Amino acid sequence: MNKRTKLVEWLSAIKGNRIVVWGDIVADHTLYGDTSRISREAPVLILEKEWDNVAPGCAGNAIMNVAALGGIPIPVGVVGSDSMGKRLLRQLEKQAIDTSYIETRAASETAIKMRVLAGGLHTVKQQVIRIDSGGDYQSFSEAGIRKNLQAALRNADGVIVSDYGLGTVRSGTFAALLRKRSLLSVIDSRYSLDDFAGALSATPNEPELEELRRVEIGDDEGVLEKAARDTLRNLSLEALLVTRGKKGMALFQSRKQRVDIPVSRVQDIVDVTGAGDTVIAAYTLALAAGAPFEDAARLANVAAGVAVMKLGAAAPDAAEVRGALREMVASA
After folding, report:
1. Confidence of residue 183 (pLDDT cuts 50, 70, 90)
2. CA-based nearest residue to 297, from 1, 2, 6, 68
3. Could you tell me if 12 and 323 are in contact, meaning their C-beta atoms sit under 8 angstroms apart?
4. Residues whose CB is less than 8 angstroms from the CB of residue 13 and which lie 6 or more positions away in sequence, other chains included
5. Cα separation of 71 and 315, whole Å?
6. What are the φ/ψ torsions at residue 75 (nearest 5 degrees)?
7. Class of 3-25+58-108+136-331 in CATH
8. How far apart are CA 50 and CA 289, in angstroms?
9. Are 202 and 234 in contact (CB under 8 A)?
10. What is the side-by-side order of every strand in the sheet holding 249-253?
């Protein structure tokens, strides 16, 4: 049996795995419009709004990816009591996702990332600005989050920690409930990966690893190797999966040689937004199904290759990933 055929089997094995997704749930609000004239008030384009879309972002996108790939996500997080928070909860519930452990805070504003995409009538729309607002989750009670997380962990097969620095994820709660326990945990932390020693694995991108280790990797593979090995040792991880954009991925394990995984379908890249959420969803689901780290990383690479073919933060479903794998098997 070749490796690609084995990945098809792991994709089937992830169905029904229960994955807690604990993290910062954000509303990805995208506004689309036409630009046809310049304002008289200032040298700027006038945007004629066509339509807009709201989707769960950050940890919310990881939640949607787990569901799309056939897993059962159990979200733990916080949203505001505003209309955007209610809209996010409705979207998750429409996908039959249990929102019992998402706390709604009165008088709090849901975190929003609003992207404005503009273009002419017959042109591809391009992002012209992003506006971030809301999401002051630092002031929320850690006790409430810890209680919800503890309840969500019952009967879970794995945990994704999706930390975008908004305050939903607390290192004290991680230490109390997840550090060094048998339940596998995979970390995606934009600014504070060193706070999560004792997890099973982590999935930083290369710039995050550079910032963490205060180095510049560039094309120096030796610097990458040392930064990754130092992170493995300092955090007592079993594996570290570094995503490298067009360079693909690099998997590091203690006492094993690194594994380089070329990017999947590089010629078809449309938008890399949210690809990291696809990676951690597929990687964690595969690990929960019993896949070895290399197989889980390769499956995540294929899933991300499908995701970047779509505009915006997309969640590829299992059928799309299976199709990509079969194409790979046929062309091998």
Report:
1. confident
2. 6
3. no
4. 286, 289, 290, 291
5. 12
6. -75, 140
7. alpha beta
8. 43
9. no
10. 102-105, 72-80, 18-23, 158-163, 185-189, 201-202, 239-243, 249-253, 259-261
For residue 94, pLDDT over 80 is answered with yes
* CA distances (Å), origin 268, targets 242, 264, 308: 21, 9, 8
Encoded tokens for 4: 């690609």
Tell whether the model's pLDDT for residue 141 goes beyond 90: no
CA 166, CA 135: separation in Å to the nearest integer?
6
> What's this model's pTM, rounded to 2 decimal places?
0.91
Whole-angstrom Cα distance, residue 41 to residue 82?
33
On the question of pLDDT at 36 being above 90, the answer is: no
Q: For residues 47 and 33, what is the distance between their CA atoms, to the nearest angstrom?
A: 6
In the predicted model, what is the mean pLDDT of residues 300-311?
80
Q: In one letter, which amino acid is 328?
A: M
Tokens of 160: 């994704």
Confidence of residue 72 (pLDDT cuts 50, 70, 90): very high
Mean of pLDDT over the chain? 89
- Give, in order, the Cα–Cα distances in Å from 182 to each of 11, 93, 159, 179, 293: 23, 30, 11, 9, 16
Residue numbers annotated as active site: 277
Residues 135, 111 contacting (CB under 8 angstroms): yes
Domain boundaries, the chain: 3-25+58-108+136-331
Specify whether the CB–CB gap between 156 and 19 falls below 8 A.
yes
